[in-house]
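4.2 Preliminary Data

To establish feasibility before requesting continued support, the project team ran the inverse folding procedure on a target of 361 residues. The structure was first converted into the token representation described in Section 3, and no sequence information of any kind was made available to the design step. The complete token record follows.
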């Protein structure tokens, strides 16, 4: 239970909304393509709106100052002639990690649809993927880039299958070469500062110390910031797993383990569909399933560096804000839906037979 009942109540409402999103999508799994095209359109509009807000509101979510480097400096120079640039666009926040995470997690899903999909689905994914890549590049969100890299490597391994070791063997030396060259040309340290990693380690250590007296039930939903003594970091734990432990205690950890086990089982079934079908499966849900797995893997990796499941921050008036993020619920629902389409149950098959018109020979 949260000591702050009002904060805990609002946090619980957002979690209930996320669960309703999950059950709403999974309960409509058998609906036709028009419904899922509309889901994709709404999701695209939400991300687009979030991008506009991020690129125009520096104070949104307490995200701080902008990160301007040679890669995106041309955009600043392009916008300077516009009227009221200093007052309206002068404080653009390019490195909002929430936007970076959303794009970095979604980009591998779009790449999987481009590789494994067909027809209009592949074209739409290609257009959205190009748009997302451009925004992610300009945002200069190191967390988003890490998420995209992890997910894209997974998609590449799925595409190569037995030759996946070739991709890994090529990426390792290329990564070292890119680091040496990029650090001199583009100043990679401005994008991935080592201090950001070491500071996060200190935050995790202090966070674990803070909640060691609440190891069974946690400190309550949204209470991480409010429960931190003055000598500790007054902010987010920059780790989704630590935030979950702080919010729910051992019960949440057990729920996470159960969810991970279910995800592994469903993921194995989705990947197994590749081996029992043609090299280029015609079922579009195979592409969606592989892309969803890539998104979940990217999200799991980036959760080590950011609180990707919930957003908690101190507002300007000193009050604590806490909002559960629907991303993981959305991708979990899409994995369930993809699995149901790839492996329809007997009851679903019998219902489909009843719906088909009887044709007499």
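Position-by-position output of the design step:
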């Amino acid at each position: 239970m949260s000591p702050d009942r009002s904060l805990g109540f609002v946090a619980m409402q957002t979690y209930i909304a996320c669960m309703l999103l999950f059950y709403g999508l999974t309960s409509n799994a058998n609906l036709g393509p028009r419904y899922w095209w509309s889901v994709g359109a709404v999701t695209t509009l939400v991300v687009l709106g979030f991008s506009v807000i991020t690129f125009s509101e520096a104070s949104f979510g307490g995200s701080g100052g902008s990160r301007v480097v040679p890669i995106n400096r041309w955009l600043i120079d392009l916008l300077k002639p516009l009227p009221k640039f200093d007052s309206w666009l002068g404080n653009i926040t390019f490195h909002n990690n929430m936007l970076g995470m959303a794009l970095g997690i979604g980009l591998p899903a779009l790449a999987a649809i481009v590789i494994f999909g067909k027809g209009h689905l592949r074209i739409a994914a290609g257009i959205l993927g190009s748009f997302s890549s451009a925004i992610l590049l300009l945002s200069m969100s190191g967390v988003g880039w890490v998420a995209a890299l992890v997910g894209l490597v997974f998609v590449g391994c799925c595409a190569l299958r037995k030759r996946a070791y070739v991709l890994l063997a090529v990426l390792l030396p290329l990564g070292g070469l890119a680091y040496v060259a990029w650090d001199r040309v583009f100043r990679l340290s401005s994008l991935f500062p080592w201090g950001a990693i070491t500071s996060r380690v200190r935050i995790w250590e202090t966070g674990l110390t803070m909640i060691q007296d609440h190891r069974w039930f946690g400190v309550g939903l949204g209470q991480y910031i409010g429960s931190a003594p003055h000598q500790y970091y007054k902010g987010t734990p920059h780790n989704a797993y630590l935030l979950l432990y702080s919010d729910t205690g051992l019960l949440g950890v057990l729920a996470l383990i159960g969810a991970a086990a279910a995800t592994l089982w469903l993921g194995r079934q989705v990947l197994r569909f590749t081996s029992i079908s043609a090299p280029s499966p015609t079922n579009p849900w195979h592409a969606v399933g592989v892309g969803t797995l890539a998104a979940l893997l990217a999200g799991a990796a980036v959760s080590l560096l950011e609180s990707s499941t919930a957003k908690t921050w101190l507002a300007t008036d000193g009050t604590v804000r806490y909002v559960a993020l629907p991303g993981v619920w959305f991708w979990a629902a899409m994995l369930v839906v993809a699995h149901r389409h790839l492996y329809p149950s007997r009851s679903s098959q019998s219902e489909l037979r009843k719906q088909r018109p009887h044709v007499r020979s």
